[in-house]
Structures are given as C-alpha cells and as structure tokens.
C-alpha cells in the first residue's frame, strides 16, 4: 500500500519546486524529505523530479502522476471528514417510520426540517405505515426511529418511548353536512352518520384509540367505508360518505369541502410517540432525539 506521507511530500515539492521550501512547510529537515521522495520513486519505478543544483522540475511521468496523487489525498481528507461526521451523528442514513396522520403534524415537519438543516450530510428516509407495523420494523432494525400513535406493550424492554404529548381529536364532516354549522359535536351525535376510519385489520393506532373511546361513552358507531391513509379517509368524508374522528393536525390538509369540529368529550386525544431501540447508541438516532426533544412537553418514559 502506497505511503500517504510520501504522497504528501511529493505534492508539496511539486507545488514549491524547491526541496528547502517544501521541507519548511512540512516542518522537517531537507534530507528526510529527499529520502521520502527517493523512496516513492523507487516504489513507483520512475523518477518524479529532474533535480539540479539550481532548480527542480517535474519529469513527464511526474506531471502525469500528479493529478492521481492529488486525488488520492483529497479522498483521504474527505474520508476523514465524513468519518468525523459519522461519529458525531452528522452524516449517514436515518430510516424514519411514521403513522399516516403524524406526517400532517407541525412537530413532524418542523423536526425534520430542523434536523436536515443542521445535518445536510444525513440521508433521511421517511416511510409511512400503520402504527402496529412500525414496532416490529424498529425492533428488527429496518427502521431507526418510529413516530407512532400506539405505545408498545408495557413489558417490551426493547423499546424506549419519547412522548411528545397528545393532540385533541376532532370530528371531520363534509362542509355540506348540517353538523358543519355546529360549534362542537359529541360522539353520540356523530353516530347518526357512518364512521369512516382505518380498516380493523390495518393496525392503526387511531383505530385502537377510537374503539375504547366510543365504548366508554356507551356509543356504538355505525361503520362506513374505510381508508388506509388519512388522506383517503378525508376524501371519503368530503364525498359525503360519512364522518371521521381524526387528530387535530388533519386540518393541515386544508380542504374547503371538509369542516373540523371540536369534540364534546375532552379526553378524546391521540398521543404522539417517538419509539427507538432502548440500547441503540447510534449518534444519528441520538442527534434526532435531541432535536425533536426540544418540542415543548416532551419527556422520556418507559
């Protein structure tokens, strides 16, 4: 393997075309520099410089070899810089999984914007999925971080949870629906219309929240069509196919044909959770947690 120190010596001599000045820049005496160049020439099998008592100039072979030597040293500098960024959590790849509705939250967009701005060398991949599918992907290492509405089982020691608090649930109704003129609406009033939500077999955290919420208030919803994405659910609401109960951030879809109403039940809310592997000490994961942990009311538990 070629000695990088010798390449550095060659590069400086080629710039100075003077062994004394090159040696001064390297903070070494001239004889050791001369020996480094001679050793490199022996390794290469050709002379790099024509030397006389008055001047030094590159040989034809030296001129052709120079750009390759410079490229090698530039790559070494780049590798050193990247390795330092990797160690500091400022470079690499981060796989982030998220539930459908969470992508609409300001916490999600602001955190990613801040993280990517602070870490331009990080390639972040955002993958949407049902909350129930995010946990196994995280544990298996296919995701580095999961943003979910569904907490892991209490006895799952593999996962650490960062709670970013909760957001209220709201009713989504078509703007042509008479309910749209109300200031708020109750679950009982909503039950007069088909409830549009995620399929029961999809594994949505929102579905898992709604079922006990309705039961607690003695309301049995009349299930309507289902959608596997929050945008599909709202599109069905706009089409007059029923009503939906969704996180407050769904308002950010900005549809004029859908009206969002506060619920009369004050405890109706959806958590926003950040899941990571408990013993994951990846600098990238830690850097993301530090960034998103600046969100008000965030706190570790579990």
From TrEMBL:
Keyword rRNA-binding: no
Pfam family, any one: HTH_1
Keywords of the record: DNA-binding, Transcription, Transcription regulation
PROSITE patterns reported for this sequence: HTH_LYSR
Key word rRNA processing present: no
CDD domains cross-referenced by the UniProt entry: PBP2_LTTR_aromatics_like (cd08414)
Domain HTH lysR-type intervals: 2-59
Superkingdom field: Bacteria
PANTHER family referenced in this protein's UniProt entry, alphabetically: HCA OPERON TRANSCRIPTIONAL ACTIVATOR HCAR, TRANSCRIPTIONAL DUAL REGULATOR HCAR-RELATED
Family per similarity comment: Belongs to the LysR transcriptional regulatory family.
Protein name: LysR family transcriptional regulator
């Amino acid at each position: 393997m070629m000695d990088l120190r010798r390449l550095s010596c060659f590069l400086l001599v080629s710039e100075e075309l003077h062994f004394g000045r090159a040696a001064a820049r390297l903070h070494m005496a001239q004889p050791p520099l001369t020996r480094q160049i001679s050793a490199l020439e022996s390794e290469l099998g050709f002379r790099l410089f024509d030397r006389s008592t008055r001047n030094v100039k590159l040989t034809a072979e030296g001129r052709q070899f120079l750009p390759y030597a410079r490229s090698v040293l530039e790559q070494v500098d780049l590798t050193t810089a990247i390795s330092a960024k990797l160690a500091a959590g400022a470079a690499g790849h981060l796989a982030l999984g998220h539930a459908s509705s969470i992508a609409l939250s300001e916490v999600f967009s602001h955190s990613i914007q801040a993280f990517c701005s602070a870490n331009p060398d990080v390639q972040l991949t955002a993958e949407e999925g049902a909350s129930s599918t995010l946990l196994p992907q995280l544990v298996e290492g296919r995701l580095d971080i999961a943003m979910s509405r569904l907490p892991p089982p209490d006895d799952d020691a593999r996962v650490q949870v960062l709670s970013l608090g909760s957001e209220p649930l709201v009713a989504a109704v078509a703007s042509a629906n008479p309910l749209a003129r109300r200031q708020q609406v109750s679950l009982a009033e909503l039950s007069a219309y088909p409830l549009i939500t995620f399929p029961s077999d999809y594994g949505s955290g929102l579905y898992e929240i709604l079922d006990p919420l309705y039961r607690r208030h003695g309301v049995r919803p009349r299930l309507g069509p289902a959608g596997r994405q929050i945008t599909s659910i709202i599109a069905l609401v706009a089409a007059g196919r029923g009503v939906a109960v969704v996180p407050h951030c769904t308002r950010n879809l900005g549809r004029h044909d859908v009206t969002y109403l506060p619920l009369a039940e004050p405890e109706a809310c959806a958590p926003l959770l950040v899941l990571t592997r408990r013993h994951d000490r990846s600098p990238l994961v830690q850097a993301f947690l530090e960034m998103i942990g600046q969100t008000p009311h965030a706190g570790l538990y579990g």
